Amino acid sequence: MTATAERPATTIFRRPRSTTGLWSWLTTVDHKRIGILYGYAAFFFFVIGGIEALLLRIQLAQANAEFLTAGAYNALFTMHGTTMVFLFIMPASAAFMNYLLPLLIGARDVAFPRLNALSWWIFLFGGIFLYSTFIFGTSVPPVSPDGITGNLAPGGGPGSFNWLADSPDGGWFCYQPNCGPLYSPGTAMDYWALGIQILGLASLVSAINFIVTVFNMRARGMRLLRMPVFAWMTTVVAFLLLFSLPIIAVALFMVAFDRQFGTVFFAATSGGDPILWQHLFWLFGHPEVYILILPAMGIVSEVLPVFSRKPLFGYSAVVFAGAAIAFLGFGVWAHHMFASGITPVAQAAFALATMTIAIPTGIKIFNWMGTLWGGRLRLSTPMLFAIGFLAMFTIGGLSGVTHAVVPSDWQQTDTYYIVAHFHYVLFGGAVFGLFAGMYYWFPKLTGRLMSDRLGKVHFWLQFIGFNLTFAPMHWLGLQGMVRRTWKYAPETGLEPWNLAVTVGAFIIATSIAVFMFNWYRSKRRGALAGMDPWDARTVEWMTPSPTPEHNFSEPPVVTRLDHFWHLKYDEDEEGRPVRRPEADEMLAHLEDVGRHPTTPIHLPNPSYFPLVMAVGIPLVFYGIIYHTSAWGKALIVVGALIMLAALIGWGMEPLEEPHEAHEPEQEGVEEESGHV
Amino acid sequence: MSELATAAHLEGETTGVENRKLGMWVFLSSEFLFFGALITNYLLYSNRAGFSGVYPAEIYDIPFTSVSSFVLLMSSLTMVLAHNALSRHDQNGARTWLFATAALGSVFLGGQVFEFTEFVVNYDMRLSSNPAASAFFVLTGFHGTHVAIGVIMLLSLRGMSRRRGGLSDSHGMNLELVGLYWHFVDIIWIVIFTVVYLLSAPPA
Amino acid sequence: MLRLIRGATVAAMALLLGACQLIGNEDAPLTTFRPAGPNAERIDDLFWLVFWIATAIFVLVMGALVLILFVFRDRKKEDAREPKQLHGSPKLEVLWTVIPALILAVIAVPTVSSVFELTGCEDDSMRVELTGHQWWFEFHYPDQGVDTANVLVIPAGEEVCLEMTSDDVLHNFWVPALHGKRYLVPGQTTLLRLEASQPGEFWGHCAEFCGLSHSLMRTRVQAVSRAEFDEWVAAQLAPANLPADGTPEFDGYQVFLNKGCTQCHTIRFDDEASSNIVLSELFNGPDLTHFASRNVFAGAVLPEGGETHEQALARWLADPPNVKPGSFMPNLALTAQEIEDLIAFLESNT
Predict the structure, then answer these.
(1) Strand order, beta sheet including C218-224
(2) Residues of chain C neighbouring A167 (CB-CB closer than 8 A)
(3) What does the CA dihedral A263, A264, A270, A273 come to, rounded to 10 degrees?
(4) What CA–CA distance (Å, rounded) separates B190 from B69?
(5) Domain spans of chain C?
(6) B18-198, which class in CATH?
(7) Which of A68, A532, A574, A655 has a Cα-to-Cα distance from A615 of 20 to 30 A?
(8) Residue C91: closest CA among chain A residues belongs to which residue?
(9) Interface membership of A209 toward B (CB under 8 Å)
């Protein structure tokens, strides 16, 4: 931390200085701006993934429909799953973590701001790389082992939108050997495997950054067990990523090597074991489920207390339950494989392990209800979404227990029952939680409130649409509708429910449109929020909104859990809060100091190099896909050189420019920093 | 930036471990799982009977690999010496030992290139021979890549040390980080050498 | 806006109610709710046990949640008192750790015991070798020497052991009325025991995504009495009828011989010379010797929507990949006459 004391010998690399305009966004290392970028990108992919879902639902609204070709259908469900998991929920959670983590722990920024920017750019280019498969990818007709080809264009057969078929179509789970070189020739699955690899890299860098931030950057007095639950869940998720990503990295490398360089890891004809892929995939994939849900649990744990005007019930139980879920999450992967022919002993063991996860999950749900109990519940939009989360997630949790009952799972697995279950967990859970967070922290972002009326319209539409979409899927699954099915026969009797599901999907889409309108309008014309619109409890509200670039003029000195609340409220003999007489004065003072720092504050300088470095990565990966051609090899070299150049620049650029001290209200006033 | 020490953070709650060092430890913990998965993968396939082609365990040249393992082990020693030299402000010593470390690492890499060539040319064991061969090449190949990255980092550190003033305190931290990484790569090799070379046998 | 919500709610409710009529839908041949054998019944019992426990928990939790929302809603009264600041209760934490643990223990016991009971096969049960292909199931009865496809015929009241493997990618054999699912893994053998208590026809489906036409990889299980089964075996072992010269069947036979069908499809006749036996494992389509004895074909997809066997066959032969995208049975550009003859020939092979 004392490294600032010295200027590097070279000054040929100047750090960028723009604070506004395009360049400032391209070179920013500010965790808040990076959070915003993550958020918008994630939402963009949410809309794309949603459109994919709607197309799938149109196809399934009728038995034997021929709206999409089989190839287009397979590609769309593959990309829908991949998009929602890797390009929507994960980056949306990353958006919250980036924006909030330093604020929640009273820090000025994350531990490694340039690495933070690097994660974001890698994520963005990874997403673009993955989606470029729609332009460049190919998916040739299936080839049987002897080389007979089907006599169709990719996908082909009855239906429209066949141009979509030239994209990854092996499922987001990429089960081998179907998504291996023999049965998924063409480049589309390469785009998928390498795209996920890039996205994993972005998450890994973030995870390291967040862990170091939490352990080293907390404000004075912010002991670990005084951190807001969202900061805790961020930490837990970072560890989950840290330990699960290397496993999927290995597995994806194996797939890529099988496809590109002729290894035979999963080729049954050469002795490879296709089931090994499933072990590796779910060893990552199950922790991944908690990577998706825990941030939302953190958000809900922030929102419920504020709108109940009570502290979180059983804070440490909620925190430890979160950690326990994460820990147990590494020991249950094979419950995704109960039908794969693993031994009965293994099935029994994984069933028991899976059941134990219900216990910490239950602890969380009961503690949230304990938080509501006896509170003064203000049913504003964030609260509605948090309660919606609680209810929907409970359903998802209960249907999850039925999967732990192995024989029952033999009937349910690979049917729409599973689709219903995980949408209750990931949409009813994670997405409702994320929306609660968006309404709750919107004022932090913009200084304005989102319209509560429109918010409620959004909530009810989404709530009704959601249940109409996913509740019938339970029945569909139990009535024998298998997953990933392009067509079903009219004789199966599945049509009426499927129609209802499709109607529900369009109601959800409408609700999202309402949300987008609300966001757009509130950003311009929403009511001014002031510093503390919700009478909140945690320290991120101790600084003006929108958050100043330096976060806190004076980082808080934390004395207890819910520090901010206790600055505002005292308790009477009955244990009821009484507003301190000096509270309003304190708020006014905080707002004034927040806008006008008394001492110059050094902020990390922007940098070009995260962006440059991230540009190199997809180039190398494009090169790997086309490595047999000369220009493919050239791309690898060019990409590697760009990365090397960025690395050198990264290392050589001055740690800090001769400082412009940060003076938010007096732009352009330069002041030599006094640190040398 | 970690380097950006504002007064407030100095007073804040921290582990006391410098950010970059903590970051490196965290990163290496992830790397352990990366190699753990690769090694497990090899063990799963290495003695499964019925593959066509040569099993890696049939053609290991243990004396040769022992020597190259010893070389890599020694490079950990020279890395420690480089670190010691720098903490004594012995710029020349640090420079020498860094170079020695890089050189030993390169010798190890050369050995690996030789070994791979032997396997492919003399024994016709290729990536596509069987899953055991695939797993062997991918595991040791990734390890070799890590060594190569380490060598590049060592050489760039040495390159910086040639500038006026030599390796400064802040570069001392860099050296410590590279050292951590280098020791990690060595430890992983010890595991690979033991488990993959010495303890694995082809199916009976 | 409120009116809109109300309207939407009413519409949704109406739809739900209408759909509720269909829950007990008897016309859902793939339903898991009508188990027809001891294995599926055991699973069904287990499902309902867990279902009712889960429902009880659901009602309690949701009831409590709704109650809380109703009682503690902020009514925005001026004199409303601030809530007591409860921070937690170790007693409650213990309580809601222990109670779920106990409930789970109750579920765990039958789970574990049934896993062991329902896995694997009895040693003396009849074996059927099942091979998955993109996109159809092939059945081989090693003891009887019968080869067939798409339709699995089993004796009712007896356990049949499927020894399953796959020729290409992963498949997953699922007949909901008889048992849960089990993968077909290339290079490995998995076991699945099936038993139908009474004669009947049961639908099945490949449940693991297996490529382009995964949704069209279906199957049927026909359980028949032991006597009928023995008859069926005898009939299957009999050779196909070699059609007499000059009949439409004979013309169809010529089409079969000359248009490329013989590359993949076996038909065994009395006389060794006329038989076409495909030995290549690579060129492997369903054995057509007793094609017409199976009520469904093309991955048990056809006939569908009320068409006859002949109509479906005409549609299929005209352009197989258009019915089943990616099908390895190519469009052989048969003329209408050729198709007609071929149908006559194939339908004569009962």
Answers:
(1) C151-155, C218-224, C200-206, C171-174, C182-184
(2) none
(3) 160
(4) 8
(5) 33-48+91-225, 248-348
(6) mainly alpha
(7) A655
(8) A314
(9) yes
Q: What's the distance, Cα to Cα, between the start and end of chain B in Å?
A: 56
Joined tokens for residue A372: 């509501």
Closest residue by Cα to residue C165 from C146, C144, C183: C183
Fold of C248-348: Immunoglobulin-like (2.60.40)
DSSP chain B: -TT---HHHHHSB--SS-HHHHHHHHHHHHHHHHHHHHHHHHHHHHT-TT-SS--HHHH--HHHHHHHHHHHHHHHHHHHHHHHHHHTT-HHHHHHHHHHHHHHHHHHHHHHHHHHHHHHHHH---TTT-HHHHHHHHHHHHHHHHHHHHHHHHHHHHHHHTSTT-S-HHHHHHHHHHHHHHHHHHHHHHHIIIIIIIS-----
Check whether A414 has a pLDDT greater than 50. Answer: yes
Supply C302's token pair: 């056809």
Q: How far apart are the first and last CA of chain A?
A: 14
User: Average model confidence (pLDDT) for chain B?
Assistant: 88
* Contact between residue A85 and residue A284 where contact means Cβ atoms under 8 Å apart: no
| Number of domains present in the structure of chain A | 1
pLDDT over 90, % of chain A: 78
**B87 contact A CB<8A:** no
**Nearest residue of A to residue B149, measured between CA atoms:** A644
Mean pLDDT for A469-478 is: 95
Is there a domain that residue A140 lies in? no
Q: Which of A111, A246, A257 sits opposite B23 (nearest CB)?
A: A111
> Encoding tokens for residue A660?
């412009």
Chain A contacts in chain B segment 91-150 (CB below 8 A): 126-131, 134-135, 137-138, 142
The span from the CA of A148 to the CA of B10, in Å, is 69
Structure tokens at A67: 């709206």
Which structural domain, as residue segments, surrounds residue A393? 380-529
pLDDT for res C25? 55
Report the residue of A119, A264, A551, A650 to disrupt the B interface, i.e. the one with the largest count of B CBs within 10 Å. A264
Cβ separation C216–A487 shorter than 8 A: yes
Q: What is the CATH number of domain C33-48+91-225?
A: 2.60.40.420
Write the single-letter amino acid at A133.
Answer: T
User: What's the alpha-carbon Rg for chain C, to the nearest Å?
Assistant: 28
| List of chain A residues whose C-beta atoms are within 8 Å of the C-beta of residue B177 | none
Whether cis (ω within 30° of 0) applies to the bond prior to C303 is: yes
For A419-465, write each residue's pLDDT tens digit.
999 999 999 999 999 999 999 999 999 999 999 999 999 999 999 99
Q: Residue A534: which residues within 8 A CB-CB, separation 6 or more?
A: A306, A307, A380, A382, A440, A443, A541
Helices (H) and strands (E) in chain A, counts: 21, 2
C142 close to A (CB below 8 A): no
What residue spans define the domains of chain B?
Answer: 18-198
Is A394 in contact with C327 (Cβ distance < 8 A)? no
pLDDT of A656 > 60? The answer is no
Q: How much is the pLDDT for A157?
A: 78
**DSSP-assigned letters across all residues of A328-353:** HHTT-GGGG-TTTT--HHHHHHHHHH
- Tokens standing for A131? 């989606």
Which residue, among A143, A277, A366, would best test binding to C if mutated, counting the most C CBs under 10 Å from its CB? A366
Taking the CA of residue A342 and the nearest CA in chain B, the distance in Å comes to 15
Interface contact flag, C29 A480, Cβ < 8 Å: yes
A600: burial class by Cβ within 10 Å (0-12, 13-18, 19+)? middle
| φ, ψ (nearest 5 deg) of residue B177 | -65, -45
Query: Would an 8 Å CB–CB cutoff place A249 in contact with chain B?
Result: yes
**Do A82 and A168 form a contact (C-beta atoms < 8 A)?**
yes
A406 belongs to a structural domain:
yes
CB contact (8 A) between residue A223 and residue B13: yes
